[in-house]
Design goal:
With about 210 residues, the chain is of the alpha+beta class. It has one domain: Cyclic phosphodiesterase (Cyclic Phosphodiesterase, Chain: A). The chain is built from four helices and nine strands; from the N terminus they run E-H-E-H-E-E-E-H-H-E-E-E-E. A hairpin with a 5-residue loop joins strand 8 and strand 9.
Length: about 210
Amino acid sequence: MQKIAPKNSTIINVCIIPDYNARKKCIEFSQSLKSKNTTFLLDGTSKFAHMTVFMARFGDSEILKVLDAVKNVLLDKGSFFCEHVGYFMTSGRYLEVSYRKSEEFMYLHEALIKRLKDFRINPGKPFEEGYFAPYTKEQKNNAKETGYDLARNLYRPHVTLTRYKEGKVPEIFPGFVPAKLSFNLDKVCVYKADDNGAVFELLKEFNIK
């Protein structure tokens, strides 16, 4: 693994954007977790509710090719149901809204890997991104093969609400008022992402019928 980020490169996050109601509730839940122990919160302005489908680092010169490849993947992809199934605290201290890992999700995930992985910078020897931690053997293999540590068997559809500081994960799991967070897919976006995988600059938006 490289220890220094390659120059003139950008993390690109291809993600599903939840519908208005699900986005609104995710922001409300995230904001309710505000404390000195959380590192960020969703606000809909600088931190967006999104569900990563594939993410990797690409050379800036390849970004237009990436956008075109995503467009081609989505040409024959229709809408599908994104079913909310609960909440999850990862070993990396991220609190997530979980969605069912359906065949439709995996079909889209694998199609994006197939089309995009060869465009990424330094295939087989990726920079060790901040969002890779904690790093298991399977995550390392996924990163080398695809650029995304949570690819394939480790892929889980989710929306991140916040991340807790080291040693500050609450002992009691946060309680949320029951809410309808399921939605029908109607939008896939391509964003630039920061070193933690959080999206910040929209590059392209695709509407799904």
